[in-house]
């Protein structure tokens, strides 16, 4: 199960793909870090400026089989709608 952990104060999201420790972190794109496990596979993504980078967040979730529609438009609309198979925790 994919998990999202959102910090509204820093506007950062951690997308946990696998609940394993990170062996190394690589900056894949400005404000997007990728954590790799000891087996070389991705364990998670750290996305800074999540509202600005929400399209990257959506692409990451879809890449890993997520089916969640969510809104990162700020404090006025903190809505999450679960669709089909995955549950995301904020």
Structure in words:
The chain is mainly β and 90 residues long. It has one domain (3-82). Helix content is 11%, strand content 37%. It has one helix and seven strands; from the N terminus they run βββββαββ. The chain has one helix at 54-63; strands at residues 3-7, 12-16, 24-29, 32-36, 42-47, 68-70, 80-82. The strands form two sheets. The protein has a five-stranded antiparallel beta sheet with strand order 1-2-5-4-3, with helices on one face. A hairpin with a 4-residue loop joins β1 (3-7) and β2 (12-16). The longest helix is centred in the middle third of the chain and has 10 residues, at 54-63. It starts with a strand and ends in an 8-residue tail after the last strand. Mean pLDDT is 78; it is low at 69-90.
Structure keywords:
90 residues; mainly beta; 7 strands; 11% helix; globular; disordered C terminus
Short description:
This protein has one helix at 54-63; strands spanning 3-7, 12-16, 24-29, 32-36, 42-47, 68-70, 80-82. By secondary structure, it is mainly beta.
Which strand order does the major sheet show?
Answer: 1-2-5-4-3
Helical content class: 10-25%
Order of secondary-structure elements: EEEEEHEE
Number of helices: 1
How many strand units? 7
Mean pLDDT value: 78
Shape: globular
Category by helix and strand content: mainly beta
Low-confidence stretches: 69-90
Largest sheet: 5 strands, antiparallel
How much strand content do the residues show? 35-45%
The structural domain count equals 1
* Alpha carbon gap, first and last residue: 14 Å
* Integer-rounded radius of gyration: 13 Å
